[in-house]
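Reviewers asked in the last cycle whether our approach scales beyond single polypeptides. To address this, we selected a multi-component target totalling 467 residues and predicted its structure end to end. The input consisted of the following lines:
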Amino acid sequence: MAPENGATAGGDPGRDGQGFGTGEITTDVVIIGAGPVGLFAVFELGLLDIKCHVVDILGKVGGQCAELYPEKPIYDIPGLPVVTGQELTDRLMEQIKPFGATFHLGERVDALERLPDGRFALSTDIGSRFNTRVVVIAAGGGSFTPKRPPLDGIEAFEGQSVHYSVRRMEDLRGKDVLIVGGGDSALDWTLNLAPLANSLTLLHRRDEFRGAPHSVERMRALVGEGKVRLMIGQVTALDGVGGQLSAVTIKTKDGDEHVPVTALLPFFGLTMKLGPIASWGLNLDENLIPADTAKFETSEPGIFAIGDINTYPGKLKLILSGFHEAALMAQQAHRYVHPGKKLLFQYTTSSSNLQKKLGVR
Amino acid sequence: MAKITFVQPDGSQQTVEAKPGMTVMEAAKLNDVAGIEAECGGACACATCHIYVDAAWRDKTGKPAEMEEDMLDFAFDVREESRLCCQIKVTDALEGLTIRVPAKQF
Ligand SMILES: Cc1cc2nc3c(=O)[nH]c(=O)nc-3n(C[C@H](O)[C@H](O)[C@H](O)COP(=O)(O)OP(=O)(O)OC[C@H]3O[C@@H](n4cnc5c(N)ncnc54)[C@H](O)[C@@H]3O)c2cc1C
Ligand code: FES
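The resulting structure, written as structure tokens, was:
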């Protein structure tokens, strides 16, 4: 199911950053992370008449389930004897549909600060700004970030001549481009950049590609026309000064080759890194956020932490634990969002009020 | 039981006992073998359990399936002898298996 999308989302791996931020949005709750736990939080908050905005750096919803194991089975979701990561994501999206949350995908929440009136200001890497009463951090293992090949000295070239995503194609015009990888990102950028680059080499460890068959075909055609050089091997060393790459060493089965390269684009998928959350002034315990087990609130009143990102005695990093945490979080969030309003404990089975909200009555 | 020896890049060795039915990755984690991260817990979804299988053993450990080949694309310094050790099931036939741990996981 396609989520409502607040920004242009990138493809595999992650994002290509062509989105534009939305202006300032005033809301009750911002949920950081659209993993299974962030999604279920929309449901629990929705039952209590609380509207949410959900932000995720991935171009899709579902967090680890959708990005890391969409086709693999999960056996410990109560009531679903077996469900794949993607199916669980799709079912959660169906379940939360009545609550009309707004999704901002392909955006990373970079800053979070408390305002003088006790509310919170959040901003994203592409300039969306939120003014919210409550913040729910459902950030899992952190932001999905492109994997950095463990090559000596690569950091020095990043941003200038090593790029993990393409912000502006024009920046690569006239460069000697080396693209590494065998998936859709590597293939798509090979096709897009071949006309612009001075030279373009696609390097993969084997002569088989995971990407879409028609992209593979088009790539092979460009290779046939001599517009793209396809190499089978791996980068082992980088050469250059002052952040500017000049050549790389490529190990092939016929030995090492020194190839002139002025722009390197490695596409090795995504990994999770805590990212900006570390600088929000929250207590952290080995990159996790301690939360109390009655409300799942952090050391900062009004900021909650649920799912894989939190820690407390006995914590289990399981989806079902995150669902429970979301339910208790919502009770306390209600006190902030609707102060003075009494909360009645109700069952979805029997409450006509809840059923109206769910659109089943 | 099968004895499996893990050789680190610096040459140091550690031999562990593995029960048939478990994976080589599980045997490594249970014995705290260095250099095997296995972030995804054996789901063939992370490539941080990358190892090299000595030539003499490659018939017995078998070849990577397509899913494992795809995931090996995300490993570093992949070679002929590369495997993801969460995809190797321990059997009695693996008694004496030698595995080399790479210098770096991604
Ligand atoms: C291979 C594998 C198999 C698994 N099998 C099971 C299983 O069988 N049963 C089970 O219960 N669990 C399983 N898990 C664990 C389960 O997937 C996690 O517990 C679950 O995904 C946690 O959900 P979450 O919503 O807390 O976080 P995540 O799913 O990690 O989602 C967090 C999201 O937050 C985003 N994010 C973080 N920081 C920011 C930021 N600053 N700005 C914007 N977005 C941000 C991330 O990009 C991510 O999409 C498995 C995990 C893996 C990898
Ligand atoms: S443990 Fe993740 S691929 Fe083997």
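Chain A has a mean pLDDT of 93. We regard this as preliminary and will revisit it once experimental data from Aim 1 are available.
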